[in-house]
Amino acid sequence: MTDVVVASRTQPDGWTTTVVVSDPDGTTSRHEVTVTRAVLDRLAPGADDPGDLVRRSFAFLLEREPKESILRSFDVTVIGRYFPEFEGEIGKYLKA
Fold first, then answer.
1. Are the C-beta atoms of residues 29 and 42 closer than 8 Å to each other?
2. Rg of the chain over all Cα atoms, to the nearest angstrom
3. What is the pLDDT of residue 94?
4. Dist CA 22 CA 13 (whole Å)
5. Is-contact 40 47, C-beta < 8 A?
6. φ and ψ at 8, to 5 degrees?
7. What is d(CA 19, CA 77) in angstroms, rounded to the nearest whole number?
8. Residues with Cβ < 8 Å from 57, sequence gap 6 or more?
9. How many CA atoms lie within 13 A of 35 on its CB side?
């Protein structure tokens, strides 16, 4: 089972998260994802930390592409450029 570990650092306008994705075969990838307060409020109303949103966003991504294909550094909203259904579906992942 793929393991996704998220660590958040507060920034003036939101957060920068470090995401480490590890597969059972021992391979890992590392990513930096930014999330603004406004985006967190829109995508995960009531959340006070982006950790769950980012973890679930990676679940969404990993269903569609291997970890090696995920950008190394991006804003969480960029996912919607590659997968237009992202913002409409991320709520389902957050409820799971």
1. no
2. 13
3. 86
4. 29
5. yes
6. -110, 145
7. 16
8. 33, 76, 79, 86, 90, 93
9. 29
